[in-house]
Amino acid sequence: MSFFLPPENNETGDKRNLIVAVIMSVMVLLAYEAYVSWTGVKHGVVSTAQVEASVEVHADSAEGLPSAPAMTQQKPAQIVSAASDENIQTTRRVPIHSNVMEGSIALTGGRVDVLSFPQYSETADGEGVVSLFSNDKGKSHFFDAGWVSESIQAPDGNAKWLASGGGLSPETPLTLTWSNNTGQVFHRTYTMDASRYVLTIQDKVVNEGPSAVALSHYAQLHKTGVLGGGGGMKYNPERSTFFNHMGPVSVVDGIRAEPEYKDVLEQNSTVDGQNGWIGMTGRYFMAALVPSQGEEQSFTFKHTKRGDDFFTALVQAEPKLLTSGASLERSLRLYVGPRQISELKKENISLDSAVNYGWFDFIARPLYSMIMWFQSHVGNMGAAIILSTIVLKILLLPLANKSYRSMAKMKLIQPEMEKMKERYSDNREQMGMAMMELYKKHKVNPMSGCWPMLVQIPIFFAFYKTILISFEFRHAVFIEGWVNDLSAQDPFFILPVLMGLSMYVQQKLSPAMGDPTQQKVMRMLPIIFTVMFLFFPAALVLYWLVNNVLSILQQYILMRSMEKAS
């Protein structure tokens, strides 16, 4: 982008300087965001080594495990208790296995606290396995559920369940049983599909006692280890950034909530409703509770006081009166998997809104769909980005042509402008008036050269958000051995350097500005942007590079045709 008004025109000069300042500020902010994101821990998941170590040392530990929420409408702070050492030693586990998930369920609490995804590696080189649920004492993430009653003993996070069957798989559901020896028998059945990231939980209680009892069902997701780090330049993969929310998310009766962990630390958050879900997200993976719909229930984010870093997402149903001889059932789905729109849409409950592109969602969603369509046909995400950039360039062609024609005219009248500056060097007012007459005579709008860049800013932001958040860019290969992960920076810095060179060529094609100081600033921009783009994801740099190359070709062709016509 070039700016052509003479420095004597203060009003337009101020506009020009403001535009430059805005663009530079945005780029610096994006560069910092990219730097702390891609030089820190990348994916915000627990490593396989951590899980294996935790299974060995803490596999059956229930220390700090919440028992159950209180059975009141006020929903006070969570009651916390710990299992005894004897329970820790005698607890058994049952395995979980499907095409997409591996893990285990602890019979103490019937909780799912070890879960990994064998098809996803921690690094682009294929090292490690992504693990989302872990029972590691310092950094745990797990699910539990139970019942609350004021009159009888009910199973909570420390109840010792009995299992029928050797494990959970798509072919073999797992049923757990617990009895309080006063007439109430509780059953929990886990089922799963072969290729979905969902566990279905069916909780049932049968009242074989002589009198009616009131019961309330609850389900919880717990997470620890999310408050450490994040200070200065240290990147915390569990902490939200300016462009990407990571943490508590819920959608209840169509209303979305995204509190930060620090907000939950200060005050619990509860919303009552009949339809919705609640969960916790990382950069690329998430866990969410989807209870039965159409029933009044509460959705709560809370900070458990037993530890300074223990957060809970809770769904609790209204109390129900269970008469003697009757039964009561509650079902829910537990989604634990990638924050991938195609997978989330399978649940048919707006779970895909966990992928939030923010202000530019109306641009990012169509952009995402276009890139995914090209990717499905060409089989390469980098090629899909290139083709999508070409489509965007074609759509913006009329606006860009108008701008480049104006720039070409500015370059043609550059000699006349220099003569006017010499002629009116001692009279700024007359020079400004003469310049405006010159622009009017040749039908030139000096500010029109800014429009292509200004229009690209929201598209650039949408592209940035799409690449930063969308799961499909994670470990996406462009050229094997060079760019093996389009969501990370170019390891050899080839794309940023080419992008800087393309900016330099663009400047050579554009008319020079009259102010020597501004000319020096503009000459430095390719270097400054190259340095900043070193830390940007390769996919975004690829988009900017292709866009620049197409702009150069378009600008060159138009200018050549106008020179021949003149």
Task: Describe this protein with a few key phrases.
single chain; 566 residues; alpha+beta; Beta-galactosidase, Chain A, domain 5; nine-stranded antiparallel beta sheet; six-stranded antiparallel beta sheet; 21 strands; 37% helix; disordered N terminus
What's the topology here?
Elements: H1 10-38, H2 48-58, E1 66-68, E2 79-80, H3 85-90, E3 93-97, E4 102-106, E5 111-117, E6 130-133, E7 141-148, E8 162-164, E9 174-179, E10 184-192, E11 198-207, E12 213-224, E13 248-252, E14 255-257, H4 261-266, E15 269-273, E16 276-281, E17 285-291, E18 297-303, E19 310-317, E20 320-322, E21 327-338, H5 341-344, H6 361-378, H7 381-395, H8 397-412, H9 414-423, H10 428-442, H11 451-469, H12 494-509, H13 516-533, H14 538-565
Antiparallel strand pairs: 1-2, 3-4, 4-5, 5-6, 7-12, 8-9, 9-10, 10-11, 11-21, 12-19, 12-20, 13-14, 13-16, 15-18, 16-17, 17-21, 18-19
Helix pairs in contact: 6-7, 6-11, 7-14, 8-14, 9-10, 11-14, 12-13, 12-14
